[in-house]
Design a protein that fits this description.
Layout: E1 2-5, E2 10-14, E3 32-35, H1 38-45, H2 47-61, E4 68-70, H3 71-84, H4 94-107, E5 114-116, H5 117-137, E6 140-145, H6 148-155, H7 159-170, H8 177-187, H9 200-211, H10 216-219, H11 225-245, E7 248-257, H12 260-267, H13 269-286, H14 293-307, H15 316-328, H16 339-359, E8 362-369
Antiparallel strand pairs: 1-2, 2-3, 3-6, 4-5, 6-7, 7-8
Length: 398
């Protein structure tokens, strides 16, 4: 498998294919870019390059030239970080919006209306290193979906049993063939070579034109399983043709939360005590009611990376587990606690989270269409020419 490196830890992977689409390579590997954060770390660790980088960005963002950045001026910086890392645009994904809000909060320390040049450089370093750590643990995979994998799926022995399973899940005498087909597309994903069917652009520019090639009269009739299998295959072939003409770029993430990272943290007493000390100092400043539910959630968010958990509010299923763990310590009824009591509360909550996730792991998969040019220069991560010749954005062209 070919792997080449590009901006900010992106690794290009291509499936080797012989003539006619056959050949070697791993099933479903396709063409992808893995964003793992390694080059973000390289930039931040090069003090001279990072200093010039941060200064260039500060001047670029300081629209009024007053030597300070307001929250309004910081907004392009945060959105630029997300765009360059393959995150969905602000407002299109609750998970991404949570990351954007956290980044703004870090830049403004949660309460400031503006930051100085020195504060910007210090906090930008922390944000980028935090993102790099998160990407190392949970890389974002950028996929160029061009119809090839979808054609492979339609022509493979997998198609009929998977399509039949989909029909048994969504098929109904009250549904027209059109409704069945649209429901089926929602259940297919990037593993099948299908971009997110829920995306409005994909629906309008890929799916609807492909549907128009099917018999209009038949689309409004009830569908038997045989008709469904036949027409779904035709529809997917039509979609593959559209994707060949208009490939779709998708940012894809997969995470399994099984409690193993929480267990490693709890088993490492030195690391756990060090982290609890740090959290106690931070929370002591930010909250007076140190045993409250809100305070405990804020503290857990500060421990999330070390515990391999998402920030509270980012993944509903994990939030539910945390809520149950909070109930076990009666978090809603707590008032102030001392340092030892606070640390014990957090440890008990983490242990309860670990046990729940160990019993019932949570798998989360998310695919989002990237509508902007994927590797265009952004407000924050487009590097100034401070070293050798500038890196070129990764191209998906053969």
């Amino acid at each position: 498998m070919e792997r080449t490196r590009s901006w900010f830890g992106r690794r290009r992977r291509r499936k080797a294919r012989g003539e006619g689409g056959g050949g070697g390579g791993e099933e479903g590997e396709g063409e992808k870019v893995v964003v793992d954060g390694s080059e973000i770390r390289e930039l931040v660790e090069d003090r001279e390059a990072f200093g010039m980088f941060a200064e260039s960005k500060f001047r670029e963002l300081d629209a009024d030239g007053d030597g300070r950045l307001s929250v309004r001026e910081l907004q392009p910086a945060v959105e630029g970080i997300g765009a360059a890392l393959g995150l969905p645009a602000r407002g299109s994904s609750p998970n991404a919006d949570h990351i954007y809000s956290e980044a703004i909060s870090e830049l403004t320390h949660g309460k400031k209306e503006e930051v100085s040049r020195t504060e910007f450089q210090e906090v930008l370093s922390d944000i980028l290193l935090g993102m790099a750590a998160g990407l190392k643990r949970d890389p974002i995979v950028i996929l160029r979906i061009d119809g090839e994998d979808l054609r492979d799926f339609v022509d493979s022995p997998r198609y009929e049993p998977e399509a039949a399973a989909i029909f048994s899940k969504i098929g109904s005498e009250d549904m027209s063939l059109r409704q069945c087909l649209l429901a089926a597309l929602q259940l297919l994903n990037v593993d099948n070579g299908m971009p997110p069917a829920s995306d409005p652009w994909v629906a309008e520019n890929i799916i609807e034109p492909a549907l128009q090639k099917l018999p209009a009269g038949q689309l409004e009739q009830p569908a038997s399983q045989d008709i469904f299998l036949e027409q779904l295959k035709k529809l997917l072939s039509n979609i593959a043709e559209r994707l060949q003409e208009q490939p779709v770029i998708v940012a894809h993430t997969e995470n399994t939360f099984d409690g193993s990272c929480v267990k490693r943290l709890l088993d490492n007493k030195f690391e756990l005590d060090k982290l609890l000390d740090s959290v106690w100092k931070d929370v002591l400043i930010e909250h007076k009611n140190k045993g409250s539910r809100e305070c405990l959630i804020a503290a857990l968010d500060k421990m999330a990376d070390a515990a391999g958990l998402p920030p509270y509010g980012a993944v509903n299923q994990v939030d539910a587990v945390v809520n149950e763990a909070l109930k076990t310590v009666n978090a809603d009824e707590r008032t102030a606690v001392d340092e030892a009591g606070f640390k014990k509360l957090l440890t008990d909550i983490l242990r309860a989270v670990m046990m729940q996730l160990n019993r019932q792991p949570i798998f989360v998969s998310n695919s989002t269409v990237v509508h902007e040019p994927l590797f265009s220069s952004s407000a924050i991560l487009s590097s100034p020419p401070v070293k050798s010749s500038p890196r070129k954005p990764l191209s998906f062209q053969n």
